[in-house]
Amino acid sequence: RSNSYIVGPVVIGNNCDIGPNVCLLPATSIGDNVVISSFSEIKNSVISNDVNIGPGCIIQDSIIDKGCITTGQFTACSGEADVRVSGEHHQVNIGAMLGEGCSLGNSVVAQPGVIVGNYSQVQAPRLISGTMASLILSSCSAMALSTVDVGSVSCGSRAMSMVRKRRPVTGWKSNETRLLPASLSGSISTT
């Protein structure tokens, strides 16, 4: 569209809708059926199939899995993060990693190295960091975590080890009880 700026190498899949004033910068791969709304910038990132990126998003050095929706002004800037792979720590420049089917509200900012699990929902406005397990709902008044065991993952200064011990959390919508993995207690920062 008009005023869009694409600097290769960039791979764009089939049936994509790239809005006006979008910047696609080198080393970006975009899957099939992706919508990128106006005034968004994507650099050195992998965007999977069926992703909808809202207006005014900045995505750098990130991985966004299939079916994710960012409604607008999502920011995932690149920065140095400590990543642990097979027990070894590596300092890497990385943005955000969003699992399959995530939904992010307006004005969500992801710290470098954040990992958001599959089908997580983050309501606006939020600053997220660390690792969020699959099926998380983060909103202004509550955060519910599913009963998911998290393997050995480290992001930034936060490290999580596999812990199967859980403690109940009450008071979230109709006082129903949810189980919060003990390993995630305090590991998710939302502002």
In short, what is this structure?
The protein has 191 residues and is mainly β.
List the helices and strands and how they pair.
Layout: E1 5-6, E2 10-12, E3 17-18, E4 23-24, E5 28-30, E6 35-36, E7 41-43, E8 46-47, E9 52-53, E10 58-60, E11 63-64, E12 69-70, E13 75-76, E14 79-85, E15 88-94, E16 97-98, E17 103-104, E18 108-110, E19 115-116, E20 121-122, E21 126-132, E22 137-138, E23 143-144, E24 153-155, E25 158-160, E26 166-172, E27 176-181, E28 188-190
Parallel strand pairs: 1-4, 2-5, 3-6, 4-7, 5-8, 6-9, 7-10, 8-11, 9-12, 10-13, 11-16, 12-17, 13-18, 16-19, 17-20, 18-21, 19-21, 20-22
Antiparallel strand pairs: 14-15, 21-28, 22-23, 24-25, 26-27
**Percent of residues in beta strands?**
over 45%
> Would you tell me the structural class of the helices and strands?
mainly beta
What overall geometry do the principal axes of the alpha carbons give?
globular
Mean pLDDT reading: 75
Q: Quaternary state, please?
A: single chain
Work out the number of β strands: 28
Helix/strand order, N-terminal first: EEEEEEEEEEEEEEEEEEEEEEEEEEEE
If you compute it from the alpha carbons, what radius of gyration comes out, rounded to the nearest whole angstrom? 17 Å
First-to-last CA distance:
36 Å
Number of helices: 0
Low-confidence stretches: 138-191
Biggest sheet statistics? 14 strands, mixed
Task: Please estimate the helix content.
Answer: under 10%
